[in-house]
Amino acid sequence: QVQLVESGGGLVQAGGSLRLSCAASGATFSSHTMGWFRQSPGKERESVAVISWRGGSTDYADFVKGRFTISRDNAKKTVYLQMNSLKPEDTAVYYCAARPLTRQSYDYWGQGTQVTVSS
Question: How far is CA 38 from CA 18, 46, 52, 72, 76, in A?
């Protein structure tokens, strides 16, 4: 079992920045691929960024490439999402999730943190 708690969301003007954090507890954090997802009202949840268990490999959705950066600190059991050049369309609830290395699905999810970007 992995428990995930996101923080760092809030209200920001377009062009601004936010840094989301996701603190993990429970099972071995470093044995999980970590991802950030988001969901806007009326839309399906979408993947934003993924980072491998050691942090050596990352992947981003096209709509955030060059603006967002995912990172992790396994010693602190925390994954981050640095969001720069925010746009109103980035407004959503952001979730972090953990995928065990032996699994194909994200088994553990946080409760989400709201990010609102005003124009």
Answer: 14, 6, 19, 18, 23
